[in-house]
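RECORD TYPE: inverse folding
INPUT: structure tokens
STRUCTURE:
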């Protein structure tokens, strides 16, 4: 019969894990969970038809069309880059009497959103403007 002092002493019969192997296992589990969460998030977003595309597209458009926070016409390149997959996009920038438009004409059923932006109307001239971005499903 063994005494309690025998249990406390290390035995060559007991398995031990190397610290490097334990760290590698924790890293592998972390990477696996991250990949799973990313794939699940992407799959759930694709299944959601009720999400509003216009605010997301407007934010992407402003990011593409602006330099240092100022929207710089022409808008065609930014409109194509910001267009969500499977959708059409129309962007209209109005600054005083100036107006720039990119994309196909929008139908009445398009989802639209407006943003107040700073716009470059001429070299060295920046004025406040109104940006309207509309998106609708491509047919």
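DESIGNED SEQUENCE:
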């Amino acid at each position: 019969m063994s005494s309690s002092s025998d249990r406390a002493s290390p035995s060559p019969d007991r398995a031990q894990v190397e610290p490097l192997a334990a760290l590698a296992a924790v890293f592998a589990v972390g990477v696996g969970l991250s990949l799973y969460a990313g794939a699940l998030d992407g799959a759930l977003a694709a299944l959601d038809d009720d999400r509003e595309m216009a605010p997301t597209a407007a934010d992407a458009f402003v990011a593409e069309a602006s330099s240092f926070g100022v929207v710089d016409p022409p808008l065609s390149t930014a409109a194509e880059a910001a267009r969500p997959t499977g959708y059409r996009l129309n962007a209209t920038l109005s600054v005083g009497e100036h107006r720039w438009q990119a994309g196909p004409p929008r139908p009445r059923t398009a989802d639209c959103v407006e943003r107040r932006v700073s716009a470059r109307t001429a070299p060295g001239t920046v004025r406040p403007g109104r940006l309207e971005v509309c998106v609708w499903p491509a047919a």
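NOTES: The longest strand covers residues 125-137.
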